[in-house]
Design brief:
About 80% of the residues lie in helices and about 0% in strands.
Length: about 525
């Protein structure tokens, strides 16, 4: 009888760890679903709740800004007050915000609740990953984090299709109900199985650094989104961008003087570390922004249904399910810098190919460039997290991972704001080139950039739908030229910075996360 006890004892622990992994995987799945789903829903939301182009842009930007700006603070709070406590609170905030979004009466409420949802997501993801590192060791930890990456990839690949299906059959509000259900399932699983852990050496949060960083990020994003409407040289735009620059300067000064800064600026003296931060931001301009721009084009300009748009987006995201794993295997024989740079160059080629596809062409002509972009960006995607902690001394791996994730998410939010501003500016210029008056073009251009072809036609009754679609195609083509240039430059800089990372790229695919004591 006694000999069976040791064999039976591990089973409850294994079941508990599996449930914790399931909870964190669900939380990881909620993030891409909360990003890609509303992107598909923006045309339906605009038809239902209306709103200015600026208000509609905040549907995605509010979530990304809040998520990226709060990640490091949420991680510090989890280390001090407990990973389980912060995870449960984060999932509760996320799920409550999602349910409230499903009942939002207007666009302003929608934007505010999206920011709250981003805060909950930041709390859950940062604390969940830290809790997961406590549950698994060695190869088991590598497999667990690989599953988290797979969950994220599934959300990116099939989120648009799921959103399109829900919108077609039940309406856009069902998207938020679905994410609330996933969040509540993660909360219940974690409440039952997750252990409470914390870092006994954790100190107070760097609130001056956190507030100045978030403030600078918010003002800069707001300024970029405001500029196409009020003008780049307007007092409002210059005031917002100037305020962002001032807060950034204060943030740098605060971090240099802090005993335990939120962001250790000395890490940027390492060329490989700077290269990794550039690698974190590069996919935003070649891939992430397309998750928002393409649904608007497919639905508003091409005339696809939400379901058809979701199907088209699978071509862009499906490679994320397979190629990151293959890239991790290839990194054992090929330098990670070469794989990352090659992938970005492939993505740049895909962007240039996509620029030749004007609105109105058969859907099949878009599959090739979308697949090429997805394949290209999937190669560095599988290596980034391992690189983030392998290019610094092991005792600083935790902060390096936090900085990397903040750079990645905040970079995505900034990229969305920059690209939205550029597309709005290019749309105004394209309308002007089509003979539309400057004042009328400035008013209608931001709506055209959002794919609001019908609303634009109402504002410009003298222009036909074909003429407006052609103007949009011109603006979109010029934007793709800019994105391809940024992606190519990023590839070359990353190749330079990561060429000799002092052996840090060895075993990238299985680089362990830092682990604190319970």
């Amino acid at each position: 009888m006694d000999t069976n006890l040791p064999a039976q004892a591990p089973e409850p622990a294994a079941a508990r760890r599996t449930l914790v992994l399931a909870a964190v995987s669900l939380a990881a799945l909620c993030m891409p679903l909360s990003f890609t789903g509303p992107a598909i829903a923006i045309p339906a939301i605009a038809a239902d709740l209306h709103g200015t182009p600026l208000a509609l842009a905040w549907i995605t930007n509010a979530f990304m800004l809040s998520f990226g700006g709060c990640l490091m603070v949420a991680g510090a709070l989890a280390d001090r007050y407990g990973r389980k406590r912060v995870f449960l609170l984060g999932m509760a905030v996320f799920s409550a915000a999602a349910l409230a979004l499903a009942a939002a009466p207007g666009i302003v409420w929608l934007d505010v609740l999206r920011a709250v949802q981003g805060l909950g997501c930041a709390m859950a993801l940062s604390s969940g990953l830290a809790a997961l590192a406590q549950e698994f060791d060695g190869p088991a930890r590598a497999r667990a984090f690989s599953l988290i990456g797979t969950a994220f990839g599934v959300g990116l690949a099939f989120g648009p299709f799921l959103a399109g299906t829900l919108i077609t059959h039940t309406g856009w509000r069902a998207i938020f109900i679905a994410t609330a259900a996933a969040g509540l399932a993660a909360l219940l699983a974690a409440a039952h199985a997750m252990r409470e852990t914390r870092d006994p050496q954790a100190q107070g949060v760097d609130w001056p650094g956190a507030l100045t960083f978030t403030g600078a990020l918010s003002l800069f994003t707001y300024g970029l989104l405001q500029a196409p409407d009020s003008g780049w040289g307007s007092a409002a735009s210059l005031g917002l961008l100037g305020g962002a620059a001032m807060l950034l300067a204060v943030f740098i000064r605060v971090e240099r003087r802090a005993a335990r800064p939120m962001l250790d600026l000395t890490l940027f003296r390492l060329p490989a570390f700077a290269g990794v931060q550039l690698l974190a931001a590069a996919p935003a301009f070649s891939f992430v922004v397309l998750l928002v721009l393409l649904p608007a084009r497919f639905i508003g300009i091409e005339g696809y249904s939400a379901l058809e748009a979701g199907r088209m987006m699978i071509a862009l995201s499906a490679p994320m399910l397979v190629l990151p794993v293959l890239a991790g295997m290839a990194a054992q024989r090929i330098a990670a810098a070469h794989i990352c740079a090659s992938g970005l160059l492939l993505a740049a080629a895909g962007l240039l190919w996509l620029s030749t596809c004007a609105p109105g062409q058969p859907p099949a002509t878009l599959i090739g460039p979308l697949l090429l972009i997805g394949c290209g960006i999937s190669l560095p995607w599988g290596l980034m997290d391992g690189l983030a902690i392998s290019v610094v001394p092991v005792e600083r791996a935790g902060m390096a991972a936090g900085i990397f994730n903040t750079t990645r998410v905040a970079g995505e939010g900034l990229a969305l704001a920059i690209v939205s501003a550029l597309l709005g500016t290019f749309s105004v210029a394209a309308l002007g080139g089509a003979g539309i008056g400057a004042h009328e073009a400035a008013h209608a251009g931001p709506f055209l950039a959002l794919g609001e072809l019908r609303h634009t036609a109402t504002l410009l009754p003298q222009a036909g739908a074909g003429e407006l679609a052609q103007a949009y195609g011109t603006a979109f083509r010029h934007l793709l030229y800019v994105l391809a240039s940024i992606t190519t430059a990023s590839a070359l800089l990353i190749l330079t910075f990561l060429r000799h990372p002092a052996g840090a790229t060895e075993h990238i695919a299985t680089a362990p996360a830092s682990k604190t004591t319970n």
